[in-house]
Write a structure and sequence with these properties.
mainly alpha, Four Helix Bundle (Hemerythrin (Met), subunit A), 4 helices, globular
């Protein structure tokens, strides 16, 4: 029996790549009508959540790779974009992120990165990256499900 193992770093990078693919696929199936909708007045719109994900994913990568906090501004304003254009912005951001993530192979996963007095290892930051993306994907999914239920209720 042939058993192959991959390094921890390669495993995390593969998990991140799969999370990117899943989030992108999810985005590409959203309706235009939901983008500026919010579950209630105190939550972000779906568009704002997407923008937050893109910005913070790059912020976290900058922290992991460069050990510094760099604000990240989207290269394009997405406030009036159609979903296909938002997916294109997401793709551009992920391409830039994945280029940076390749540098993780040269980092020790146990090296610490401190942020606001809290120390996390590079490995923990990788978990944070994955968690952040999946958490917000879940929030968008909840908004999508609620929106669809509201639409069905209005149409019945």
């Amino acid at each position: 029996m042939l058993t192959m193992t991959i390094s921890k770093t390669d495993f995390y990078l593969e998990m991140i790549s799969k999370s990117h693919e899943a989030f992108r696929e999810f985005l590409s199936h959203l309706s235009e009508d939901i983008l500026d909708w919010r579950v209630h007045e105190y939550t972000s719109t779906v568009r704002e959540l997407i923008e937050h994900v893109i910005q913070d994913q790059m912020w976290i990568v900058n922290y992991i790779v460069d050990n510094k906090e760099k604000r990240y501004k989207l290269p394009k304003e997405i406030s009036n974009m159609l979903i296909e254009d938002i997916v294109e912005v997401y793709d551009e951001s992920i391409t830039a992120i994945e280029k940076k993530l390749v540098k993780i192979n040269n980092l020790n996963l146990n090296v610490e990165r401190s942020y606001k007095g809290q120390s996390l290892t590079v490995e923990d930051w990788l978990f944070e990256y994955i968690h952040h993306l999946n958490k917000h994907c879940g929030e968008i999914n909840i908004a999508h499900t609620t929106w669809k239920r509201n639409e069905r209720a209005l149409n019945s």
